[in-house]
Amino acid sequence: MRVLVAMSGGVDSSVVACLLKEQGHDVVGVRFQLWQDPLAPAIAKVLPTKCCDTQTLARARSVCKSLSIPLHTLDLAADFKCTVVDPFIAAYRDGRTPNPCVECNRSFKFRHLLSLAQKLRCDKVATGHYARIVRRNGGFALLEATDRTKDQSYFLARLTQKELSRTLLPLGTRTKRETYALAKRFSLPLDPQSYKESQDLCFIPEKSPAQFLRRYITEASAGPIKTLDRRTVGRHEGLPFYTIGQRKGLHIGGQDAPHHVVFIDQKSNTIFVAPSRALLSKHASIRSISFTRQALKENTRIRLTARVRARSAAERGTFTFRRSTGLFEFMKPVQSITPGQALVFYRGQEIVGSGIISVQARKKKTV
């Protein structure tokens, strides 16, 4: 089988290429050159946690050379900026907190992988994601990884049968420790002991998006920070620079208990804060619903579990939808349900589908 492997230059994708080569497949490597922030400080551009720097490119080339496989390098910076970065900035501008990795996999990464695979006459594409794809009832089911501490199925939840049917995830049944052991066995030109994994937001040079957003959202204006009883306790620097659940950086000391951002009011340019208990909600309205294998029955309450963030626990509840919108009702309150984030729902270990959280839960009478 001829397989196109996405090569980031890291341990995971390098091991995937080695495994497939060892299994006798005809392996082809590809590396995407993505957009890098031209306005970033010079020091931020050389951080060792980036996937598009010269160091990771050298790693990918070295691995492919050692395996005697070709490496195709595609400059997709312009499309990445348009498809991933611009919507990310726009979402923050509108008061939402997006997860760009989820949308990137759906609308950018796998789109280009499958397109190139077709041109190169490859049967499958492969990545280093920790998740599993198995045949089930005539289709392909997406499952959580065996190593739950490294599970990345959440980030693949927007994929459909088109992508899943042509994708291999060789690390889905392995632990990270096993992957490092394989890297050593394959004598990869990498040092697992000092190797640092790339961060999720690959296009942001800093560790958090705040500084990046300040460079691109220059029209944001300061405004009041208020408690739910409308008592002013501070000033914010601009709504796009804050997110639901945030506690640090508010500069509102002197409260009886730590306060978090619980609601962002675009109309009045106001941030509302309260103790963490105010972040609890049992309802999440979602839009842009997609299913990985088969659509659920409409207008029916279906028992599932769901995650509201990549690393949150899967909580039980019921899901009801009609066409592209739906409501997930949790059995017990969940913290920090945030507009713009992906809500991923499961049946057991299988991802059934996902949607984008559209409505922020709050008490209307207090805000």
Using brief descriptors, characterize the structure shown.
17 strands; six-stranded antiparallel barrel; 3 domains; disordered C terminus; Elongation Factor Tu (Ef-tu), domain 3; Rossmann fold; SH3 type barrels; globular; 367 residues; alpha/beta
Strand order of the largest sheet: 12-15-14-13-16-17
Second-tier CATH architecture of the largest domain: 3-Layer(aba) Sandwich
Percentage of β-strand residues:
25-35%
Q: How far apart, in Å, are the first and last alpha carbons?
A: 59 Å
CATH topology category name of the largest domain: Rossmann fold
Radius of gyration: 22 Å
What is the number of beta strands? 17
Task: Indicate the low-confidence ranges by residue numbers.
Answer: 361-367
Secondary-structure element pattern, one letter each? EHEHEHHEEEHEHHEEEEEEEEEE
Could you state the CATH homologous superfamily of the largest domain? HUPs
Q: Tell the overall outline.
A: globular
Folded structure, characterized:
It is a single chain. With 367 residues, the chain is of the alpha/beta class. The chain folds into 3 domains: 2-185, Rossmann fold (3-Layer(aba) Sandwich); 220-274, Roll (SH3 type barrels), CATH 2.30.30.280; 280-359, Elongation Factor Tu (Ef-tu), domain 3 (Beta Barrel), CATH 2.40.30. Helices cover 23% and strands 30% of the residues. The protein contains 7 helices and 17 strands. It has helices at 11-22, 54-67, 77-93, 100-119, 161-164, 176-185, 210-216, and strands spanning 2-6, 26-33, 71-75, 124-126, 131-136, 139-144, 167-168, 223-227, 232-236, 260-265, 270-274, 280-291, 302-307, 315-322, 325-335, 342-347, 350-359. The protein has a 6-stranded antiparallel barrel with strand order 12-15-14-13-16-17. The chain starts with a strand and ends in an 8-residue tail after the last strand.
